[in-house]
Amino acid sequence: MKKQKWHTDHAYGSVKLSYLIKRPLFRLRTNYQVIEILDTEAYGLALFLGGDMQLTQRDEYIYHEMISHVALFTHKKARRILIIGGGDGGTLREVLKHPVEKVTLVEVDRHVIESCRKYMPAISDGAFDDPRVEIVIGDGARYVATSKENFDIILVDSTDRIGPAIKLYSKKFYEACKNRLGKNGILVNQIGMPFLFPNFLKEMTERRGSYFASATSYLAVVPSYYGGAIGFGWATNENLRYDEEFFRKLAQRFKRSGINTRYYSPHIHKSSFVLPPVLPGYSAVAPGH
Ligand code: SAM
């Protein structure tokens, strides 16, 4: 009987998640992290950074559709997009479904892009070769602090608050993002698992709130992420009214766009901002009311 191989992800302090591995495809220690691409029995190809699972072939579309389409369908004419992190190319793939003019992707570790292009090409699905795309290898915090470019939307598709990503949760970073965004500008960043780390959600929402007109968060369920729903931090330079009219027009924009999605829809968009009372940012008034 062939010995089974398992990869264990340090999901959460006292909890470990183990994945049965069909075969390992790639492993490299870079200046920033250990990159592993493994073919798992349950979720197909999966990317691990520093031992932590980042995405799987089976459910990555949920995360990538929700980090991109919520902002792109809210912003009525988003043309210039900045993605920080996102070296696997999944967020880029979804953003390019929209009639955007330019997408700048700033990834600190070139090896993530190269290994995902080679071993998980379906994730980016040719997005890295799109003429609208500019790839910058470098630190996202430094980029927003030094760039003179303006953007309509900034999507921070980074690892959790460890290693090179720590700066991407700082006040300085949020302030710099504010300055890089136009008057209808929107900032979205993945903020981990709110049910496991509610204080972190609160801290980050307040931190964004001190620089932006409005700050809240929305949720999505990604089965391969341990801990229930993943949270996305939401901040806008404009105080938007999420009333019935807003969602009626959003649904029209979605229909007119002809963009195919498997998880995102205008109803999912609306319900994703409905937070349970236990979570900070809960509001008794649900969007659309
Ligand atoms: N979906 C994943 C998640 O939810 O955890 C994120 C995946 S994506 C591959 C994360 C990327 O952020 C990694 O490729 C990592 O190298 C990149 N990253 C981390 N810190 C960064 C920084 N300061 N600037 C730019 N990219 C960064």
Task: Give an account of the 3D structure.
There is one protein chain. This protein has 9 helices and 12 strands. It is globular and about 60 Å long. The longest helix is centred in the N-terminal third of the chain and has 15 residues, at 60-74. The protein has 289 residues and is an alpha/beta fold. A 7-stranded mixed beta sheet has the order 8-7-6-9-10-12-11, sandwiched between helices. A 5-stranded antiparallel beta sheet has the order 1-2-3-4-5. The chain binds S-adenosylmethionine.
Give descriptors for this structure.
289 residues, 31% strand, binds S-adenosylmethionine, 7-stranded mixed β-sheet, 5-stranded antiparallel β-sheet
Q: Hetero groups bound?
A: S-adenosylmethionine
**N-to-C order of helices and strands:** EEEEEHEHEHHEHEHEHEEHH
The helical percent reads 25-40%
Distance between the termini: 60 Å
Secondary-structure blueprint of this entry?
Elements: E1 5-12, E2 15-29, E3 34-40, E4 44-49, E5 52-56, H1 60-74, E6 80-85, H2 90-95, E7 102-107, H3 110-119, H4 121-124, E8 133-137, H5 140-146, E9 151-157, H6 171-180, E10 181-190, H7 198-209, E11 214-221, E12 229-236, H8 244-257, H9 266-272
Bound molecules: S-adenosylmethionine (SAM).
The site of S-adenosylmethionine has 26 residues, from strand 5, strand 6, strand 7 and helix 5.
